[in-house]
Design goal:
The complex is a heterodimer of chains A (387) and B (383). Chain A is mainly α and 387 residues long. Chain A contains 21 helices and no strands. Chain A is 72% helix and 0% strand. In chain A, α1 packs antiparallel against α5 and α8 crosses α9. In chain B, 72% of the residues lie in helices and 0% in strands. In chain B, α4 runs antiparallel to α5, α10 crosses α11 and α17 runs antiparallel to α18. Classes of the chains: A mainly alpha (387), B mainly alpha (383).
């Protein structure tokens, strides 16, 4: 249904296509090409699609770089679910019109259908970067596929960021439940790849995750409790519940993170969140150990370096603490808390120039309102409770 | 993984061809280069087409034309352009790799595998980025061809260098579970199994080995899919890497309960038996293996060792020679043959096999040389 709607939006009017192609009909250099194109459009308007496709192909034999013919042919092939052919035609169109976001979108959607997921993700993200105008159905389809592909490529944090963007834009599609559940559970599957015996788990997790994101905390509480009861030994569940509890009952979250680490010994985020809680409880030795384990498991996790830095500073080791904080800042310069930590540490160390630089960065980030940006899902040690 | 390539092709510098040219050609060549460097792709394609039409021996023209098409995902046209470079001694190596990649993208998988083998035979030419992409796709095709060990052999160094990448996990999962699929065409319901196995294999292949994390994923695989074929065998091989022989043996036996004719498990168990001198069971298992698959080189080798241990030298020679015929580049086969020939007093043959063993053993110690073996379609079947 989603595909049909977006196609209707894309192919309904010739004006739209011409807008995409960025050109008005003009005197063609070859009469036969004009005739072919006109005949193709007539056939398309009369829903004689096979004939239209044949005519567009013939027109392209005359003018292989005709943007109009390529676009119409590409969209019609996509509509007929001839994805390989649609992909080839749309790729040619996109080469000629690299600024045409909708073309990258349909190209990516075709590649998705062909299970060329890496290319699909690249091209769908290019569509997002180029913009797709006000074509809501197309935009939602692209965002949805990007969310599921980011999860499949194990880029769970980026996937959650995208989900948050969709939710912030008022998209409340039940179809988001499974993608949200998969990203939260860190299971790199497409919704179609969810094993049947895990579907309920994914669905319930997705509902809880979406309820947290949309601040329906009572519902989320009920769903998390169900999850913990029904799936007490499932990897990821206790972490998610702990992450939820952090904002309401931080002390209770510790037990959940610890339980998660019994089930999933290499769970990086459980270590990070537990370390964060232990720092707030002034248990710096244990926090440092956990943060260092997290760094070993995932050396590019900014929050792990930040918490290691905080613990080291608290233990009086300013030199190593600052190094860890600087590493955190270099990995992800948008983490405001790391800049605050560094500001305080530089002042304490008498490094005034460095402190000034951090102060300016904090001001800049504050101006950008980045403390509450959706990107916080990337790193939960920032004071938000996005599981 | 494919995204490693764009940009590389254009910057890949090749020596210009030196033949005399008509003035028109020089103009077009210059315009083509200018269009390319200015990123005017359609113009560049048109001009390179014209230039190569005017002078079919223009290797750089074909190279850039193929590269531009490849970067636009226009693989049939890219392949046609690269085809012209096979006659060029300076371009043949990388051209094989690109042709293979184009064939892969257009679904001509057997042709792609043949081109990759030709590329390997020509010395695995090309810059690191090309070799990474080519190795990855070569490995995928080896898996599709049922050559799982060779496939893992190619991917493991990539996994060590590039780390935990989703494409590598998938490729390692398919090979580890001995599934003759490509990432594009395996049944979606197998995704979880492939992912769990791939993760376990990837962490076991890291340097230093991360067996702790590998075991975590392998345990998940076993708990979720313990009744499915190949899972216990895979777990057994992981335990084998960890030198946990008792656990490995248990897993191989579990696999045989599920798949009684599982040749790699039969061979693995026979190998473990030989290590502890249980010749009776080793012989029985190796016999079963070669009965199931008469082309199982490892089974013949193990059977040869059993006969040798029993003192039946002629039977041992027969089995080892069969193994050699099936896997001429397996150093262990040559080493055992050398021993048996020596015992039989066939000094010349023993020396020849010992020399072959040393040569192959040295090769084994260098990854590049080991890879070189894959360039030869020698029909080996090493489990």
């Amino acid at each position: 249904m989603r595909r049909v709607l977006l196609l209707a939006a894309l192919t309904a009017s010739a004006c739209f296509v011409l807008q995409i192609a960025g050109q008005e009909p003009s005197a063609a250099p070859w009469q036969s090409f004009d005739q072919l194109l006109q005949a193709a459009e007539t056939a398309r308007d009369a829903n004689r699609n096979d004939e239209a496709i044949w005519l567009f192909r013939r027109a392209l034999e005359e003018q292989p770089e005709s943007e109009q013919a390529l676009w119409y042919l590409g969209t019609m092939l996509y509509e007929k679910e001839q994805y390989a052919e649609a992909r080839d035609v749309l790729r040619q169109f996109a080469t000629l019109r690299p600024d045409a976001g909708p073309a990258w979108a349909l190209l990516g959607l075709s590649e998705f259908q062909l299970r060329q997921y890496s290319r699909a993700l690249d091209h769908l993200q290019r569509a997002m970067a180029q913009g797709m105008g006000d074509r809501k159905e197309l935009i939602q389809s692209v965002y949805y596929e990007v969310v599921v592909l980011l999860t499949r490529f194990e880029r769970y944090d980026d996937s959650i960021v995208m989900l948050q963007r969709m939710l912030a834009n008022g998209v409340a599609d039940p179809a988001l439940t499974e993608p949200a559940g998969l990203a939260a559970l860190r299971l790199p599957f497409l919704p179609a790849e969810i094993p049947p015996d895990r579907r309920e788990l994914v669905h319930l997790t997705g509902r809880a995750t979406l309820d947290v994101q949309t601040q329906h905390y009572e519902d989320a509480e009920t769903e998390f409790k169900q999850l913990v009861t029904k799936y007490p030994n499932e990897p990821g569940i206790h972490y998610l519940y702990g992450a939820y509890l952090v904002q309401l009952h931080p002390d209770e979250s510790v037990a959940e993170f610890e339980r998660e680490l019994e089930i999933s010994p290499s769970h990086v985020l459980a270590r990070v969140r537990l370390a964060e809680q232990l720092i707030s409880q002034h248990d710096f030795d244990r926090a440092l150990a956990l943060a260092q384990q997290a760094i070993k498991l995932d050396p590019k996790r900014a929050s792990a370096h930040m918490l290691a830095g905080e613990a080291l500073l608290a233990k009086g080791n300013a030199g190593d603490g600052i190094k860890e904080l600087e590493t955190a800042r270099d990995i992800d310069p948008t983490v405001v808390r790391a800049h605050w930590d560094l500001l305080r540490a530089y002042i304490a160390a008498g490094r005034n120039e460095d402190a000034d630089r951090e102060k300016k960065t904090i001001e800049k980030l504050s101006d950008l309102n980045s403390q509450s940006r959706p990107g916080d899902a990337r790193d939960n040690a920032r004071g938000r409770a996005a599981p | 993984m494919y995204s490693l390539l764009p940009g590389l092709l254009i910057s890949f510098v090749l020596a210009a061809s030196a033949a005399a040219a008509p003035a028109n050609f020089e103009t077009i060549a210059s315009q083509a280069d200018k269009a390319r460097t200015q990123d005017r792709v359609p113009d560049a394609i048109r001009l390179y087409r014209e230039g190569t039409h005017l002078r079919p021996s223009w290797a750089d023209g074909w190279w850039y034309l193929g590269s531009l098409f490849y970067d636009q995902d226009r693989f049939p046209e890219a392949g046609a352009a690269f085809q012209h470079l096979l006659a060029s001694t300076s371009h043949r190596g990388p051209a094989h790799a690109f042709l293979a990649l184009c064939d892969y993208e257009t679904g001509k998988y057997d042709d792609a595998l043949a081109q990759f083998r030709a590329w390997a035979g020509a010395g695995w030419a090309g810059p690191r980025e090309l070799r990474d992409v080519a190795d990855y796709h070569f490995a995928l095709l080896l898996t599709r061809d049922g050559r799982f060990v060779e496939s893992l052999y190619l991917i493991a160094p990539l996994a060590q260098r590039l780390g935990d990448r989703s494409e590598l996990v998938e490729a390692m999962g398919l090979a580890s579970l001995r599934m003759r699929y490509l990432p594009e065409n395996y049944p979606p319901e197998r995704r979880e199994r492939i992912w769990l196995a791939g993760k376990a294999a990837l962490y076991a292949a890291q340097s230093p080995k991360d067996f702790e994390r590998a075991d975590e994923y392998a345990a998940g695989l076993e708990s979720r899919y313990g009744t499915q074929p190949e899972v216990h065998y895979f777990r057994g091989t992981l335990y084998g890497f960890e030198e946990k022989n008792a656990e490995a043996e248990r897993e191989y036996r579990e696999e045989l309960k599920i798949s009684p004719d599982h040749v790699p498990s039969l061979d693995a168990l026979a190998g473990l038996d030989l290590e502890r001198s249980d010749l009776a069971e080793a012989g029985a298992l190796a016999r079963r293996a070669v009965a199931v698959d008469s082309n199982d080189a490892e089974g013949h080798r193990l059977l040869g060792r059993v006969f040798f241990a029993h003192g039946d030298l002629h039977a041992a020679v027969a089995e080892l020679e069969k193994a050699k015929q099936l896997a001429p580049e397996n150093p262990l086969v040559r080493s055992h043959l050398a021993m048996v020939y020596a015992k039989l007093g066939q000094t010349q043959e023993a020396k020849a096999e010992a020399a072959a063993f040393l040569a192959l053993k040295n090769k084994d110690e260098v990854m590049a040389s080991q890879q070189e073996k894959l360039g030869k379609n020698n029909g080996e079947n090493v489990h």
